[in-house]
């Protein structure tokens, strides 16, 4: 278990005396950077000990808050020279612990890079710094009739650099794609401190598609310092249908039926009963609190397209047993329908002191079965769960409710979460849809991938970062770690990676 | 969020309250998006989530230094974060507890202590502040060179508007007078009284009432704030017993404080009930007027362009309702487009005096948003915002109620011309 990021054990421990390595790194950094941007005291570092996944906490050795690319280059160059690992952090809203610091590493905050550098309406592009908030891009081009399509639930706060690192999705990705489909170029700083432009303003460029490789690389390959995003024209009309069901299975089947009918909604989301209750209390979006599940189905396009598709959606969901269908009358009502969904995760804070947000994908046809399976697991583990997810692309977000102040509850929650991941895999799904692997699902990576593939992942990492200094021990587990994990979690009597020697 | 409050605090009122608030926080970071200082400074410690963490450390037994104090001081207490928090974290209440705890452990430099003492002991008392203000007006011509910035802090004198003649009206309302407003912008309440008089409402300011307590509350002297609250309740209570319908608030900053009296004095058996009643009765002037027939005012605006700056205390504090835009539009004014209306102007009570650098940066940003659509006049609903913006604005800055009295428009037009 030595490799387990047992951050929740760290808590508010005794301050470590400033050791040699820390003093050396601090001296090296402050020789080139202003002293006040290099944080070293525990008091200052504590607020950086976790991101949006606060169950995992670890105090960084040092945190640096640069405001120029030259400063970022200096940090990376110095870390490289001193063999010190670096973890980049944007808005700190990630849900898989991707920005969890290392005790022996430097935390590199990019929050000061929050300016939109250029808006190119002719080419419908915007050049932004990595710390720019996702929603701020759409707000800045709203008056031009444009927007940036990927819209994760945390879009009000999450930053574009983190979106690229995690290949974030959102409710609109069903129709408009993930982050990778909506950016054309990025600039990174390599671990050696060199600036590198990847991608190009053109639609395609020769050579390997390194931009696709970088998107979703979770900070393992480089530090993003600039992003050129695509802007889309706002659709002429968008309408959202709020559809209620008295049975989760009917709602799950309705999703499969909508897609089968050839309709491509701009968003197709589902909330189950506990999620409806929690969000309704905060947002008052008018969700029917007696429904077993609701679907939010958004259709956008020209007026004719929306009218046609909406009529077909109505037909399909009525045939699937919908108990109530409301279609937004204007943009205010549409925004209200969505407001509940967007605030669903943190609204759990109102019904439970803590929640653990899972992120798995499954084939759409398995939605109902997996939901029922999660319900059974909930009883088995004795913990409440609320389900909020991107139903259209089969991306589940079960939210396990727990109380971190109760001894043992976090551990039970994690075990419950692991069981949900395995359930997704059994139905042919994956362990993460959009939140990334980070530290949270690193063990499940061992279940998802055989060692040959993991070996190739490590080879890619080595091509960019031979010393393994950029966000190490995240996203891609070492084979050794997988062997240990496999020894503890024997699944259906089969050991994963039987070729490796167990410790 | 997981908490482990130290034994010494866990069973105190503050400890229980802080724990309750902290437990609701899920560390999602939504709050950082609407926090003016986080957006300006990009430092976790200068956003609500980071400050919550700094406070949590102290509650968990870490000894704070002047650095924690520094970042807590830089919070505007604008409460914009509370409006974006999906988990309902009551940040402002936690911040009050945190500041108090830190200030008890970290002594401030003499100059700061002195400045804070002055704010609490001079500005919060109407007569004392009036003396200083009068001296300042005399000294105005001499405020040159290094003293020139002080001139900004002195609002220019304006001709006094008279209160209506005492008359028997069927309806009675109290007006909160406060500390700074009657000295710096006394016409605000006079205009309010005149307008309400026309609507058949007698407005009275109770003698003996004073500062709402917000200054002390935000300078880590909560017991002193509670004393101000009790004094106001005592002054208002006879009128409430006579049937005063409401306590009219013309400075939203005070309103935010008075609507919290019920919470502040919840553990004071002698005052808890009265305080809760006072909090219920506190209503912003815009909320009162929105319920009245204002058709007589329909054309007085004549299409003049007005930029409205909603104070944080009207936008973000629960309990006070902002209906100013609707009233002004109904009175024939054209409201200009103002971007980022949710961001604080930097006034924030005593903040503009204690944190001038950030306050002035926020003001510059705010004035550029307010001025973008060419208004003739900027209006707001809080004396603090009004004076802070006025000191650097190129157009007149007024309390919005002034626009509802035609004679008040003359100086506006003259100044704009």
UniProtKB/TrEMBL annotation, chain B:
Cofactor(s) needed by this chain: [4Fe-4S] cluster
Keywords recorded for this protein, A-Z: 4Fe-4S, Electron transport, Iron, Iron-sulfur, Metal-binding, Repeat, Transport
Cofactor binding summary note: Binds 2 [4Fe-4S] clusters.
PROSITE patterns documented for this protein: 4FE4S_FER_1, 4FE4S_FER_2
Boundaries of every 4Fe-4S ferredoxin-type domain copy: 16-45, 66-95
Catalytic reaction(s) noted: (R)-lactate + A = pyruvate + AH2; glycolate + A = glyoxylate + AH2
Keyword Chloroplast: no
InterPro entries in the record: 4Fe4S_Fe-S-bd, 4Fe4S_Fe_S_CS, Cys_rich_dom, Glc_ox_4Fe-4S, Helical_ferredxn
Keyword Iron-sulfur: yes
Its EC number(s): 1.1.99.14
GO molecular-function terms, A-Z: 4 iron, 4 sulfur cluster binding; glycolate dehydrogenase activity; metal ion binding
SUPFAM superfamilies (alphabetical): 4Fe-4S ferredoxins (SSF54862)
Function of the molecule: Component of a complex that catalyzes the oxidation of glycolate to glyoxylate.
Protein name: Glycolate oxidase iron-sulfur subunit
Species name: Salinisphaera hydrothermalis (strain C41B8)
Upper taxonomic lineage: Bacteria, Pseudomonadati, Pseudomonadota, Gammaproteobacteria, Salinisphaerales
